[in-house]
Automatic annotation (TrEMBL):
<dbReference type="GO" id="GO:0006313">
    <property type="term" value="P:DNA transposition"/>
</dbReference>
<comment type="pathway">
    <text>Porphyrin-containing compound metabolism; protoporphyrin-IX biosynthesis; protoporphyrinogen-IX from coproporphyrinogen-III (O2 route): step 1/1.</text>
</comment>
<dbReference type="Pfam" id="PF01797">
    <property type="entry name" value="Y1_Tnp"/>
</dbReference>
<feature type="domain" description="Transposase IS200-like">
    <location>
        <begin position="7"/>
        <end position="122"/>
    </location>
</feature>
<dbReference type="InterPro" id="IPR002686">
    <property type="entry name" value="Transposase_17"/>
</dbReference>
<comment type="similarity">
    <text>Belongs to the aerobic coproporphyrinogen-III oxidase family.</text>
</comment>
<keyword id="KW-0350">Heme biosynthesis</keyword>
<dbReference type="GO" id="GO:0005737">
    <property type="term" value="C:cytoplasm"/>
</dbReference>
<keyword id="KW-0560">Oxidoreductase</keyword>
<dbReference type="GO" id="GO:0006782">
    <property type="term" value="P:protoporphyrinogen IX biosynthetic process"/>
</dbReference>
<comment type="subunit">
    <text>Homodimer.</text>
</comment>
<keyword id="KW-0627">Porphyrin biosynthesis</keyword>
<dbReference type="InterPro" id="IPR036515">
    <property type="entry name" value="Transposase_17_sf"/>
</dbReference>
<dbReference type="Pfam" id="PF01218">
    <property type="entry name" value="Coprogen_oxidas"/>
</dbReference>
<dbReference type="InterPro" id="IPR036406">
    <property type="entry name" value="Coprogen_oxidase_aer_sf"/>
</dbReference>
<dbReference type="InterPro" id="IPR001260">
    <property type="entry name" value="Coprogen_oxidase_aer"/>
</dbReference>
<dbReference type="GO" id="GO:0004109">
    <property type="term" value="F:coproporphyrinogen oxidase activity"/>
</dbReference>
């Protein structure tokens, strides 16, 4: 492994192990003594962001605050002082640590956040302890209390990276794989899929925060209620629901990451045998109060399946975003589709017409012979091909996700204060009934959630609070309501 140059004001992952993977900390007293030496030799030369001491190796996330020569000498003094004391105690001679010690420059905050998780979860990943939160020789507990420690200098900076302490704890306890080995200390390397998995899960966490903050600002009354949940079979999620606001009557922006044995019903669906799976994604549905503002749905997800040896046998991305108006404003439809097309065109000019057609086909109530809405994008089973790597798909899916607010919120801002009648509100609730029908009869996401023991409240969050089913209701001839129905019967090219 090429050794990074130590430079002032840069962040690094510092790690090493005993020579020939030998034990370097025989007792808890050894670990305590090592930390005292860290404080003696490193403090003032480097800032400690996170640490974990294992029996035969250690990890530190640090920031260099002094010149290269001073910081380098400080590490040398630390390792020499500990090796000398340890050798004397254990009546041994010779080199204790592998040389040179390993260091990786941290290039961005996304990697730093992953590293913090990796370091703190190390004892659990190595099966040293069942719950990493109870491990005494890592910095995790230092973040949860006000005690003075070697991480105190940058404690608030790290908490802010995760937005707040609650999200810091949630991210650590999400029970997701993907942080098993950033260093190669287990004689293997981090696979590309693991990188994709952890990158995408971090992405949807950040996107959830961005979207909910923007929607709260638009509503100006209601805020999102947060509910963190765990799935008994593995994984969990963070549900955020908004209700009874000035703009949004009900809505949810949810993330989840679940894993475990794929249920038999889903094995039959995917035409596979007894396999394990991992799935994560963000799903949102917003039901505005004003019938002039359309309902919107979006979902971006990643899926993996594994054999009994833990090898990936399949992986793919999926997702999309679509609009369900109650009254048709063609300029809004054009705007929404243009944003979708722009996101697609940045990756492949064939994507928009292809995924727009799939959206029209998928979000279709066949039993009613009409579309659920005016479409947008729908894509699934986006796998490695001759033209697209998983990294390429990651870039595409995240660009679509990033485009959501630009596609939807200008429409909300334009229509949310328009006047409406009781009859128009009744029409909205009748059309919401068709939305419910699709979600309960046809939607694959609802099916997957129910058959994998997902959280019912999160799965059915998409259902609106007020709905009507009126027997054989038909809109008046020539009305705005009939205009919408005619468009829903025959998908239209908006751009």
């Amino acid at each position: 492994m090429r050794q990074e140059k130590i430079e002032k004001d840069h962040y690094y992952h510092i790690f090493n192990r005993g020579i020939n993977s030998d034990v370097i900390f025989q007792t808890e007293d050894n670990k305590s003594y090592f930390l005292k030496l860290v404080e003696k030799h490193l403090m003032g030369k480097v800032d400690i962001l996170a640490y974990c001491l294992m029996d035969n190796h250690f990890h530190f996330a640090i920031k260099i605050v002094k010149e290269e020569s001073i910081a380098t000498q400080a590490f040398s003094n630390l390792f020499n002082a500990y090796a000398k004391a340890y050798n004397k105690q254990q009546n041994r001679t010779g080199t204790l640590f592998e040389r040179p010690y390993k260091r990786i420059r941290i290039q961005d905050e996304d990697y730093l956040k992953k590293l913090i998780l990796y370091i703190h979860k190390n004892p659990e990943n190595h099966n040293v302890i069942n719950n990493f939160e109870n491990y005494e020789f890592s910095s995790y507990k230092n973040y949860l209390d006000d005690s003075n420690s070697i991480i105190v200098t940058n404690k608030s900076y790290i908490i802010n990276l995760f937005n707040d302490l609650e999200n810091f704890k949630y991210t650590h306890s999400s029970d997701l794989s993907g942080f098993e080995n950033l260093t190669g200390l287990n004689n293997d390397t981090t696979s590309n899929s693991t990188t994709i998995k952890s990158k995408f899960y971090q992405y949807i966490q950040d996107l959830q925060n961005t979207i909910t903050s923007k929607l709260e600002a638009i509503d100006s009354k209601a805020t999102f209620q947060e509910d963190i949940w765990k799935r008994p079979e593995g994984g969990g999620g963070r549900t955020r629901v908004i209700e009874n606001g000035n703009v949004f009557e009900k809505g949810g922006v949810n993330i989840s990451g679940v894993h475990g044995k794929l249920p038999e019903s889903m094995q039959a669906y995917f035409k596979v045998g007894d396999v394990d799976f991992f799935a994560c994604g963000l799903s949102l549905v917003l039901h505005p109060k004003n019938p002039m503002v359309p309902t919107v749905h979006a979902n971006w997800r990643y899926f993996e399946m594994y054999d009994k040896q833990g090898e990936i046998i399949d992986s793919w991305f999926g997702g999309g975003q679509d609009l369900t108006p109650y009254y048709l404003f063609e300029e809004d439809a054009i705007h929404f589709h243009q944003i979708c097309k722009t996101a697609c065109d940045n990756h492949n000019p064939e994507f928009y017409p292809k995924y727009k057609a799939r959206c029209d086909e998928y979000f279709y109530n066949a039993h009613r012979n009409e579309g659920r809405g005016i479409g947008g994008l729908f894509f699934d089973y986006c796998k490695t091909s001759e033209t697209m790597t998983m990294e390429s798909w990651y870039d595409f899916v995240t660009e679509v996700g990033d485009s959501f607010l630009e596609a939807y919120t200008p429409i909300v801002e334009k229509r949310k204060d328009l006047s409406y009648t009781e009859a128009q509100r009744n029409w909205q609730e009748i059309r919401r009934g068709r939305y419910v029908e699709f979600n309960l009869v046809h939607d694959k996401g609802t099916l997957f959630g129910l058959k994998t023991n997902g959280r019912i409240e999160s799965i059915l969050m998409s259902l609106p609070p007020h709905v009507q089913w009126v027997y054989d209701h038909q809109p008046e001839t020539g009305s705005e309501e009939e205009k919408l129905i005619e468009v829903l019967k025959t998908p239209k090219n908006w751009i």
